[in-house]
């Protein structure tokens, strides 16, 4: 597949993934607002922090390394061995579910049954849901490698909508069920997700469309583990790369979910405060999740396909190098401008957003300060996602192993900083620690990118430099909206609030017009791809 075709399909995949993330976050956003009126914030804290952490840890440790290894390189490979390797995620998931389930049941603080009933059933259900989801891993990787955009959109949309409908129904009719509600909804979500992938491939394999595309897997049976005589069960090169990524993924999970591990294991916040933190975190991460994550996942595939892992820039096809450098520069510019917009306008509108969303329970206390800090954190997330996406797609096994040592040291430092900052600044300390963590990771990735392109004429890191006119307008907008918040928000009535919103809208409009006038190449890239 030509590099230009890969770029086009990757962009469509990123766009579809972004739309999916919009759906997921909007559903979560609405679901939190709805459940706040029926359930206690302690129960929401246990579900969204404690149990979701169990599920995400099992899934991440069991599959992340396999995904990165098996999506690297060309789609022309021995898919029998790749599928065999991917099925190893299931026993690995069972192992992690049992180990972590015991920890969650017997070593961590158990919530008060009168406030959060059926905790044990919740732990079992969320651990089981992780194993069920891993049953669909070979199907997911095969679909992602061949850029089956529509399949991903349909499968994940149906699963989210099903989960939402069941949750709303049970919360309305049987709020006393407690964690049973979220356990059943989680099991339904993963079941629908896996069944969509399975049903699609059962219908697709052997069809005229599959034959026309020369799809590498001909029968459904080939998607199950297969032993081939006189051949190894798995591709050992992929297996070794998986092991390298596994060591890295273990550390990355600590860094990604570090604040939840600190909350869960060190009890620095009670379950109610954890609930408020998670609600603010979901609100603050709306744009980060539905734009930055799909870009990172989709363009990781693009860079891994266009450039060969472990080769220097001189040993690559120069046309592909030029395209990759141009795409990287424009992606950095895109996420930088999105991140700056959120940081500038998020500061002045955090309190208003929380007051509209959750009332005084969220807009008083630490809620506004949390969301303001998160607006800054989004800028770090934006840059880190793209720089690490390129770096991980190009690192050879030895470089990945070396980076693991960096991540190990960073994980330890991050956990220590999180603990102390939380004691000094409360839940805001978690976000400050995350900013530090992302800053170090960005420094490492940008250093790698600079060294990689040093012997070429391409300088993709220039994408991190916005135009002076746009930068000036961001500074003016920050000052004007902060002044507007002092005068009009948020206890002076709805007319004053509307004036505050209008001020922000005018500043945002001026920023967007300037962006369109000064960043013409980026505008063309977004429109064309």
UniProtKB/TrEMBL annotation:
Subcellular location per the Swiss-Prot or TrEMBL entry: Endoplasmic reticulum membrane
Signal peptide positions on this chain: none
Residues annotated as transmembrane: 12-31, 43-62, 83-107, 119-141, 153-174, 180-205, 330-349, 369-396, 403-421, 464-488, 494-517
Alphabetized InterPro entries for the sequence: RFT1
Membrane topology type: Multi-pass membrane protein
Biological processes, Gene Ontology terms: dolichol-linked oligosaccharide biosynthetic process; glycolipid translocation
Pathway membership, UniProt: Protein modification; protein glycosylation
One Pfam family recorded for the sequence: Rft-1
Key word Transport present: no
Similarity annotation: Belongs to the RFT1 family.
PANTHER family the UniProt entry points to: ENDOPLASMIC RETICULUM MULTISPAN TRANSMEMBRANE PROTEIN-RELATED, PROTEIN RFT1 HOMOLOG
Biological function: Intramembrane glycolipid transporter that operates in the biosynthetic pathway of dolichol-linked oligosaccharides, the glycan precursors employed in protein asparagine (N)-glycosylation. The sequential addition of sugars to dolichol pyrophosphate produces dolichol-linked oligosaccharides containing fourteen sugars, including two GlcNAcs, nine mannoses and three glucoses. Once assembled, the oligosaccharide is transferred from the lipid to nascent proteins by oligosaccharyltransferases.
Protein name: Protein RFT1 homolog
Species of the source: Drymodes brunneopygia
Gene from which the chain derives: Rft1
């Amino acid at each position: 597949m030509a590099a230009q075709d890969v770029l086009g399909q990757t962009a469509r995949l990123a766009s579809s993934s972004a739309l999916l993330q919009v759906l997921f976050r909007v559903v979560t956003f609405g679901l939190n607002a709805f459940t706040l009126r029926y359930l206690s914030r302690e129960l929401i804290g246990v579900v969204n922090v404690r149990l979701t952490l169990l599920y995400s840890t099992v899934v991440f440790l069991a599959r992340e390394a396999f995904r990165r290894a098996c999506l690297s390189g060309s789609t022309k490979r021995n898919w029998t061995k790749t599928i065999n390797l991917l099925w190893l995620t299931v026993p690995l998931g069972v192992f992690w579910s049992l180990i972590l389930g015991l920890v969650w049941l017997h070593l961590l603080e158990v919530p008060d049954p009168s406030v959060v009933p059926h905790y044990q059933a919740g732990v079992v259900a969320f651990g089981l849901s992780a194993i069920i989801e891993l049953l669909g891993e070979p199907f997911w990787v095969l679909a992602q490698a061949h850029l089956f955009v529509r399949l991903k959109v349909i499968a994940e949309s149906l699963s989210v909508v099903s989960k939402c409908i069941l949750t709303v129904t049970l919360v309305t009719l049987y709020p006393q069920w407690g964690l049973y509600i979220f356990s059943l909804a989680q099991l339904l979500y993963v079941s629908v997700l896996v069944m969509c992938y399975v049903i699609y491939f059962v219908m697709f394999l052997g069809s005229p469309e599959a034959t026309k595309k020369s799809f590498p897997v001909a029968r459904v049976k080939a998607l199950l583990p297969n032993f081939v005589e006189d051949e190894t069960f798995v591709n050992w090169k992929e297996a070794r790369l998986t092991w390298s990524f596994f060591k890295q993924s273990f550390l990355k999970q600590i860094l990604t979910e570090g604040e939840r591990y600190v909350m869960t294991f060190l009890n620095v916040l009670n379950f109610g405060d954890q609930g408020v933190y998670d609600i603010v975190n979901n609100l603050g991460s709306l744009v980060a999740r539905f734009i930055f994550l799909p870009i990172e996942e989709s363009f990781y595939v693009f860079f891994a396909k266009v450039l060969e892992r472990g080769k220097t820039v001189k040993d690559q096809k120069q046309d592909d190098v030029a395209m990759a450098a141009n795409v990287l520069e424009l992606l950095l510019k895109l996420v930088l401008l999105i991140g700056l917009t959120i940081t500038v306008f998020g500061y002045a509108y955090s309190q208003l957003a929380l007051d509209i969303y959750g009332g005084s329970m969220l807009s008083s206390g630490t809620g506004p300060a949390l969301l303001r800090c998160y607006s800054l954190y989004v800028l770090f997330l934006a840059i880190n996602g793209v720089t690490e996406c390129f770096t991980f797609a190009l690192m050879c096994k030895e470089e990945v192993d070396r980076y693991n040592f960096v991540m190990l040291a960073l994980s330890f430092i991050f956990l220590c900083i999180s603990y102390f900052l939380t004691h000094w600044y409360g839940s805001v300390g978690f976000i400050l620690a995350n900013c530090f963590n992302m800053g170090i990771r960005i420094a490492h990735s940008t250093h790698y990118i600079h060294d990689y392109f040093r012997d070429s004429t391409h300088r993709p890191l220039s994408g991190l430099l916005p135009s002076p006119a746009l930068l000036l307008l961001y500074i003016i907008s920050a000052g004007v909206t902060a002044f507007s918040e002092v005068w009009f928000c948020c206890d002076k009535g709805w007319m004053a609030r509307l004036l505050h919103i209008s001020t922000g809208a005018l500043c945002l409009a001026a920023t967007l017009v300037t962006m369109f006038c000064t960043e013409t190449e980026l505008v063309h890239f977004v429109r064309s791809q």
